[in-house]
Amino acid sequence: PAAAEAAAPASSDRKRPRAFTNDLAAMLFGFGGDREPDPETTDLLEEVVMEFVAELMEQAVAASHKPGRVRVEDVLFTLRKHPRFWARARELLVLKREIEEAKRRTQGEEAPPTAFEEHGRLQPGEGLAAAPGEDVELHTEDEINM
Questions:
Q1: How far is it, in rounded angstroms, from Cα 89 to Cα 53?
Q2: What is the distance between the alpha carbons of residues 145 and 81, in angstroms, rounded to a whole number?
Q3: What pLDDT, in 10s, does the model give residues 87-105?
Q4: In this structure, what are the phi and psi dihedrals at residue 126, rounded to the nearest 5 degrees?
Q5: pLDDT at 29 over 80
């Protein structure tokens, strides 16, 4: 009976679209799982991911100075207590910027200034350490991890 009750909410969740199912299946395969993982496995992982993202966004909204509006800085501020998540988010932001710059260079366009450039270009091993709405300061990872 308990297993049937636990399975009941999952069947109602199937009505909503699954945003990460294909990506999660590919990740499972990449880490040694089956090429076609059990749908219950991907459904469970999708639930965990969606709950994590929802909680992260709730915290970012709470940290935001503008109600109902979340900036990248708000998410980074929310992740500050999780160094691995924070570092990965920062790494992805820097990578995104580098890709945008490369695309603009190939098209001959000048890249508009970013928040990073207003306070100095991020170098490897440096990152943002500021609360939302505060000026961004550059710190090395050693200073941040102190």
A1: 13
A2: 10
A3: 999 999 999 999 999 999 8
A4: -115, 160
A5: yes
